Amino acid sequence: MSQSDSLHKDVIAHAVKVVSEDIPSAENFCVLLGNTVMVTPGLIDKSFSVLEDGEWDSCLSVWKAQDDHPYRALKVDADGCVSSFLNVDCTSNRQSYPTVYFYDQGIWAFKRDCAFRQEGPIPWVWLGKKCTYMERPWVTGRDIHSWIDLSASAWYLSAIQALDHEGYAGD
Fold it and tell me: Taking the mean position of all CA atoms in its chain, how far away is CA 50?
């Protein structure tokens, strides 16, 4: 399963199947990506609290992204000409846009059956039909793929992580 074209949905379903065979009582699962360091014990605890509450199939960590709203996305054609990606009639006032969130590469937590039904929001189909979010107060959890990601991760670990428990445990 460890191939350059392997899909999260397949790897997650396989892992849940293997764990469930060894531990049949395992009901709630949490996926932490190996190339991000911006996850804290408080966030993990919060995700399991959400699942144990019983209302949700899953939850994921997100950040509010009005500056990076899809209405502002651009595409480039073969001639190098830039145009609107969505071609939505909107103003440049991002405060007028519907609120949008992006998964922040922090955490996916879900009930076992969701991994197999794969009915969640695309492309995160293993999250189930009833997926909720845990909003983090800044852009966090970026995958480490470049020097800027590594620098941001080092900054987070040294300056921010100690404060990241606020707003998760017991709220």
Answer: 15
